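Notebook entry, structure prediction.
Reason for the run: the old model in the group folder had no record of what sequence produced it. Starting over properly, with the input documented here first.
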Amino acid sequence: MGVCKPIGYWGDLVAGVESCSPAEWRRLFASPNMVGIMNDYLTAKCVTDFWWHLRYGVYFKAWRHYDTALHGRVAAWLQDWRRERHGLVEPVSMKALIMSRELCKTQILIAWDGWKFAQDTNNRLLVRGYDQPKAD
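New structure, fully documented this time:
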């Protein structure tokens, strides 16, 4: 299964697996195709949910570096590019993130760009470097 599938396909796969009853889960674990199905499910979950991508999709031991209370909220904030204003939900084109040092900001934003590319391969990215001396 390739990542170039439309995002609706991945969402339907995640919804289908997560809505399984206990009897269906037992049948799934007894199935000879269980490894392939779970691999497809985990791929779909990482493509549709940034928090899963950040914890399990970047590299396996990443979950040790991220705190659910802090980084989970940042992931949800990055995933939702809408805001409510005067009772209407409208899209947001820019966000600013200010966090102290050593909280994995760079890793999170690079992983977010990778996550966006996994969802839509037609995205483009312009990287611009800026070097500023550290404050004393």
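Summary: The chain has six helices and two strands.
The old model has been moved to the deprecated folder.
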